[in-house]
Amino acid sequence: MNYRHAFHAGNFADVLKHAVLARMLVHLRQKERPFRVIDTHAGRGVYDLGGDEACRTGEWRDGIGRLLGGRGVEARPLNALLSDFLVPYLEAVAGFRAVHGQASYPGSPAIARHFLRRGDRLLAVEAQAQEFAALARLMQDGRPAKALNLDGFTAWEAFVPPKERRGLVIVDPPYEAPDEFARVACGLEMALRKWPSGSTLIWYPVKDGGLARRFIDRLTKLPLGENAWRVAFNVGARANSPEGLSACGLVLINPPWTLPGELNAALHPLGAILSRGPGVKGSCQRLAARP
Fold it and tell me: Could you report how far apart the first and last alpha carbons of the chain are, in Å?
């Protein structure tokens, strides 16, 4: 696969995914027992918003650019509720930029690592050679994180449950291969069987509404339990301006019990900030297994 996230880093989908990731990690830190984060498709972990790829698409301007500004983009004001919701995420971005420069943006492994305490661990998995080389360099600073060059789905099955029996799996494949939605569904079925108490965050694009609906429909046939949720987010589209991805979703397994309510309160103001045109929508609904 030829997917390179550098073209899309910091876009609206990253904002949603990384804000939710940060909230879940803050919750894991509330207990003293250590936890492990497994990022199955970690990417390179660091992105240059001033680089050629990011400049060619400019997607970050309608994402993190709306929140923090920079490079000719003016930040938009946040209401108090949304500001509180985004605090952990924006603190992680600020901490990363303090080290890597104000034009940098952290991928999910870098955000996850920001929240690790002594004793917590991160396993960041990436299969593509170039992306893995950058990820491995990022992880070479002595923190409790390891980069692994391996197929993400193979790693997901191999490393759950973690020995800590607490933690979070992040699943965010490129969705370029025809079978990737099916592989995610199979992976989740495996994870629910091997580690039913584990937390999982799955991101997926909504390019084809029918494909996304079939994916969610397949998940409802799994033994999801009572704490499974689907997040839908659409930032709308400008008239007569094809701009690629404008909608995405998350599947959350065993998130903090407070998170669905927080999301339903935050998604509307977040959509207003990131809006690109009519059709902005956001919701967090229970994903119930079929009887």
Answer: 38
pLDDT in tens, 108-130: 999 999 999 999 999 999 999 99
**The CATH number, out of the four listed (3.40.50.150, 1.20.1510.10, 3.90.1230.10, 3.90.930.12), of the domain defined by the range 5-286:** 3.40.50.150
Which among 111, 204, 190 has a CA at the least distance from the CA of 155?
A: 190
- For residue 168, the surrounding DSSP H or E stretch is strand 167-171
CA distance 115 to 123: 14
Amino acid at 122: L
Nearest to 199 by CA among 39, 85, 91, 90: 39
Q: Are 236 and 279 in contact (CB under 8 A)?
A: yes
Report pTM. Answer: 0.96
CA distances from 204 to 73, 89, 93, 241 (A): 27, 20, 22, 23
Residues identified as active-site: 172
Q: Cis peptide leading into 161, omega within 30 of 0?
A: yes
- pLDDT (tens digit, 9 = 90+) per residue, 14-47? 999 999 999 999 999 999 999 999 999 999 999 9
Q: Which of 215, 147, 225 is nearest to 191 (CA)?
A: 225
- Helix segments in the chain, DSSP class H: 12-28, 52-57, 64-68, 80-100, 108-114, 129-138, 152-159, 180-194, 209-219, 259-274
Alpha-carbon gap, residue 235 to 240, rounded angstroms = 15
